Every structure is written in structure tokens, then in C-alpha cells.
Amino acid sequence: MTDVTRILNDIAQGDAHAAEQLLPLVYDELRLLAAQRLAHEKPGQTLQATALVHEAYVRLVEGKDGKQDWDSRGHFFAAAAEAMRRILVEIARHKLSLKCGGDRQRHEFDELQLARREPREDVLVLDEALKRLAARDPQAASLVELRYFGGLTLVEAAETLAISPRSAGRLWTYARAWLRQAVEDSAGAEKNF
After folding, report:
1. Which residues are CB-contacts of 76 (< 8 A; sequence separation ≥ 6)?
2. Is residue 33 included in any domain, yes or no?
3. CA angle, residues 84, 87, 89, in degrees to nearest 5
């Protein structure tokens, strides 16, 4: 049993000090995961990888009811990927809210165009498509979360989902094609308005 798995078991048993021991062991991997995720975001993203890691970690360790049941290291990182996804979606929605000027884009004053409409954030389109995929094929949606948001390799994601790497490869091909079509359909629908 690795140190991470042991500490995750201690957290599940309610050991309040175990959470303090976990962060140093997983911080570098979470930071890399966050940096990879933020690299896919549009320019102008103000959230830094460190802040994303800390916010995700707080959500994971404190949780809604204070109880966490992570079966393994892979399960913990899958939960971290999901937490990061939710944070990025919340930020994108907040930026798009009218109260926060979501329909405006910042420009330099000397351009004489003080503000103009900004297109919908890609992360929101992907989130909606991923929700539709999850309703149709939950395992495919989980694989996308693990790979895209979690940064896991195909083999690691297959192990987390308890399927063979070959099955994961087929599922990954299907999920990417399905999401690509869903995102394109969404973009086409927006142009018709």
C-alpha cells in the first residue's frame, strides 16, 4: 500500500490530521494536472494553477458532508479532475453573467471600442456536451473526465475504470467523435440565433 493510499484510507476513517499529510505527497501531480488543464483555456484566464490546486484540494478534503471514500490513488485524482472541471465551469459561468459584464470584452481605451460582445466560453460548451454524453454513456463521459480534465493516460484511466486498455481506446475514440459532433452542433445552433 502506497503512502497516498494509506493516507486516503485514514481520511476516509475520519483522521483529521491525515489531510495535512496528503497535500505534500500529491501537490506536484495536482499542480501539473492544473497547469495542463489551464493550458487548454482561452487567453485571459486569470486563475493560476496554484490557486486551482488549492481550491480543488479544499473541496476534496472538506467535501460536502466531510466524508470521502476514495478507493485508490487513481480514484482520488479522478475526483480532483472533476473538482477542477467544476471550478473552471463555475468561473466561466461567472465571467459570462451579465452582472459581471459577461457580454462584453475588455479593450484598450485608445481603440475607441470600449466593449463588444464576446463569444461563449469553450469550457461551458464542452461541459454541456459532456453532460449529454454522461446521460447517454456514463463510462465514456468518465473516461473523458479522467483523460481531459484529469490528465491521466489511457492506461491509467482504463485501470481507474476497471476496463482493459484496448476497450478504453475504443471508448476514447467514440467519446471524442461524439463530443466533437456535439460541440459542432452547439456552435451551429448558436449561429442560427
Report:
1. 4, 8, 26, 60, 70
2. yes
3. 110
The CATH number covering residue 173 comes to 1.10.10
**80 and 126 part of one domain:** no
Q: Rounded to the nearest 5°, which phi and psi values hold at 105?
A: -120, 140
Does residue 99 lie within any of the structural domains? no
Per-residue pLDDT at 48: 79
How confident is the model at residue 145, as a pLDDT?
87
Residue 160, domain extent: 120-193
Q: Are residues 5 and 75 in the same domain?
A: yes
Q: Read out DSSP for 32-58?
A: HHHHHHHHTSPTT----HHHHHHHHHH
Residue 107 lies in a domain: no
C-alpha cell at 71: 478507493
Q: Are 76 and 26 in contact (CB under 8 A)?
A: yes
pLDDT above 70: residue 65 = no
pLDDT tens for 144-191 read 988 887 778 899 889 889 999 999 999 999 999 999 888 888 766 555
pTM (2 d.p.): 0.53
Average pLDDT score over the chain: 76
- Together in a domain, 70 and 153: no
- C-beta of residue 70 within 8 angstroms of C-beta of residue 12: yes
- DSSP SS3 for 102: coil
Q: Which three cell numbers stand for residue 103?
A: 457580454
Percent of the chain topping pLDDT 90: 17
